[in-house]
Amino acid sequence: MDKGFIQQFIEWIINNGGLYFLLLVVFAETGLFVGFFLPGDALLFAAGLVLDDLAREFFHFHFSFVILLVILASVLGNIVGYWFGYKTGPVLFDRKDSMFFKQKHLKKARDFYEKYGKGTIFVAKFLPVVRTFAPIVAGVVKMNKATFFLYNIAGSITWVCSMMLAGHYLNDFLWNRFQVRLINYIEPITFGIIAITTIPVLYKLFLGKKPVVPTPPTDDYDAKP
């Protein structure tokens, strides 16, 4: 079976840096605008497939400690993104496009924030691109820090645990039952995860608005006495 680009990239990460590279990717994708292109969902899921190996690499701790480290990387990434947005403010929206920065991504995150408010920080964890820029936008609009930290921690725990534990336990089940290794199917799994998490939200955001039908004006002389 020919390996796709995403599978090759994920396997390269796991084989060349493992846990440390995983922490760096999660940190970058959840707060640094240069990380918007990184496959965070697929990488977390793939890391769950080799979670025991990653734990053995890190002083042979239990895999729950690895998950805790990844959650911490996600939380810290969002904090850095919030701080960056808080300090740069509206000036960021005048920044010119570059290889690692696109205005359209920042504006999409801002529209998402305006649509869903504080819950954006939680929901954005499951949305590629949006999760990178959402904390930056939260900083730009100076979202209450305590509220931001609450949603940041809750979102990080839910995102990391759901992705990594799903990969870990589903892989064990399929291997024990059918001798199937999910790492060989990471390509379609990646696109499936993106579709499941992104399409419903984007549909509601951009296509779910009902058209407003204007009410025809009523002339005074048509009114009954």
UniProtKB/TrEMBL annotation:
Keyword terms: Cell membrane, Membrane, Transmembrane, Transmembrane helix
Any single GO CC term annotated in Swiss-Prot or TrEMBL for this entry: plasma membrane
Pfam families (alphabetical): VTT_dom
TM stretches of this protein: 20-51, 63-84, 121-141, 148-170, 182-203
Mode of membrane association: Multi-pass membrane protein
Domain VTT, first and last residues per copy: 38-168
Keyword Secreted attached: no
Highest taxon listed in the record's lineage: Bacteria
Keyword Transmembrane helix: yes
Localisation per UniProt entry: Cell membrane
The family this protein is said to belong to: Belongs to the DedA family.
Protein name as it appears in the record: Membrane-associated protein
Organism: Cnuella takakiae
